[in-house]
Amino acid sequence: MSLKSKLLASLLLLLAVLGSGIAFIQQTVVIPKVEAFEIDALREDLERIKYGLDRELTHMRRMATDWAQWDDTYDFVVSRTPEYVESALGGDAMEQLSMDMLLITQDEKLVTYQSTRALSSLREPLVSTLLRGPESRLLNEGGQGLIATPAGVMLVAANPILTTEGEGPSRGTLYFGQLIDADLTKQLRPPQIHAIFLRLDSTPPGPDDIQLLPGSDSVSKTWVPLLNDPDRSLQIELQQGRPFLDSMRAYTYYIMGTIFVLGILGSVVTYVLLKHYLLSPIEQLQHNMQSFSTSHSLADIPTTKSSDEIGQLTRSFREMATRISDNHISMLHRQQQLKEQSLTDPLTRLGNRRYLDSRLQQAEFAKKHPYIATFSTDIDHFKQVNDRYGHDNGDKVLREFAEVLQGCCRDDDCVARVGGEEFTAVCGISSIQDASEIAERIRVRTEQKGFVDGKIDLTCSVGFIVIPGHELDTNMETWSRVMKVADLALYEAKESGRNRWVGWRNPLHAEKTIAALPASAEELRQAVQKEALVAIN
Ligand SMILES: Nc1nc2c(ncn2[C@@H]2O[C@H](COP(=O)(O)OP(=O)(O)OP(=O)(O)O)[C@@H](O)[C@H]2O)c(=O)[nH]1
């Protein structure tokens, strides 16, 4: 995986961690907090409804007090004058009072019952409900409360009938009653609530029940006790939306979106900066190192002025590469030297046997000449030079003889010292005659040389063989046979008196000389007898 891929993967991982972190915080911290807040707010809404009911009851109670401590009411209970009913309670008095019922009792007996038209038919059950028990509780508990009636739950306020000064004895009790109907419910409903239900519930009052539904709705319920029925209650149910959650979600998505966009922008900027300051220089350095590893050229590692770690790394690498390059150059130089040394005779600076072999194995060498003459030569009685003039002078003689030999050959001929005082020259020639001329040149120049500043006169013997160039190949076995014959020719020259040359060639009609080459003096003799080899004169 490349550095670039790793960097991209890291940035994507960072974004994923960021997104997951935000979602985790939303789920574990923000939403629970919002829900707790919502529950508090819903509880407050329920309390507000209850407070609305209380306020309405207080208002009714105040009205009941006014009416019950009114002298006309007092007189009415005492004298039962029908004028009171006509003047105070007649017509649409109930509608004007916004009450559903007015009841006056005395000694638990009905004095008068006034109601809206809707409740007129329920006179008996309502009166009996009120007279059956709640009266004392009603008065004990402040003169107001909720009562279950056959018509539904009713807000009831009561006050003893007294004089205007509030003096007794009480002549009875005055009740105001108001059914919890659609109008009252509407009046109690706060504006943000979708739906409100106030209904008689067949269970006793219990703790508030607040449910936050998965969507965007909530249902909250509370129960208010009834004065006349402990086993039942007034259930208040509110259905409404969850504006806090919606706002929180909207804000969270806004924040998440913003963080995500900023994260992407940050990642892009980070990627661009890291690519510019880190990845590209590293890639460049890697590319340079690869190029250097194949070329060993310092040009592949440009200099840098950057002072950061990558700049320092590049400089360190350049220093290391400089040392490697220097070592490489000196190693190549040394290799070349060793190669030259391994192919050069240290005394005469001519090529040695290995040099001769490597030259002869080159395909072009023989092929580009019509004939190849292979000479084998050495100095006559060289042992005596060492014996008489010393080994150092013997060495000098060998060096000077090497120069003579080189001077008799062309530059592209192959001249080598193959043994102590034995030399081989392989020369490309265009006619057989050239070979005898070279041999004679070697002989004459040696004879005339005057070795070691003219102090030593010497002669040499030369043996050679001429082979058509096209017959020779790069096989060393072939060349060994050729050189062997040249050695035999040299031997012949020595045997026949020294300071002379002996050379052979193939008969002109022979197609293959190489195959017929002799391997010993005996074979040579036979080859000459059979005219497989012809002496050159
Ligand atoms: N100074 C010196 N002498 C060498 C070197 N290599 C070989 N020799 C001597 O060369 C001499 C060769 O002697 P021989 O092989 O008997 O032949 P020769 O004396 O030249 O006699 P012919 O070749 O038969 O004429 C030996 O004495 C070797 O010690 C060398 O590198 N330096």
UniProtKB/TrEMBL annotation:
Its EC number is 2.7.7.65. The chain crosses the membrane at residues 251-274. Residues 370-506 form the GGDEF domain. Keywords: Membrane, Transmembrane, Transmembrane helix. Signal peptide: none annotated. GO terms for biological process: cell adhesion involved in single-species biofilm formation; negative regulation of bacterial-type flagellum-dependent cell motility; signal transduction. This is diguanylate cyclase. It comes from Marinobacterium stanieri.
